[in-house]
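Our preliminary data section would be incomplete without showing what the modeling component actually yields. Below, a chain of 117 amino acids is followed by its predicted structure, encoded as tokens that our downstream tools consume directly.
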Amino acid sequence: MPTTLDTAQTKVALWVLAEFKRRRRIVGQPIPAAVADLHTHLLMSACGPSPEPARAQSKPAEQVDTLQAADLLGITPRHVRRLARDLDGQRIGRQWVFNRTTVIDYAQGRTHHGTTH
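Predicted structure:
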């Protein structure tokens, strides 16, 4: 039995780890350091030490600001700023910017789990 992953297995493993991390973020659970390290190691194994150029070729994610995220989530902009880390927000200057898909996934996760933050 081979001891290394082939290309197809690596892609599946990367998808599983990314999905695991995404779902934990949605429900507000921390990502274990060992999982984050494994994801980084697999990315580096598959894409080399700098996977960013491969990502740059894909379509950029649509970004939303705090007001738009608040509207999508049905909460106040202040509450969005409190959730910024859970929403993978990036601070650019004095403004927060969020990936629209992440915000929508978070909103759907709250709906499916019946939780309110």
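The longest strand covers residues 95-99. The chain has two domains: 1-56, 59-117. Preliminary results of this kind motivate Aim 1 of the renewal.
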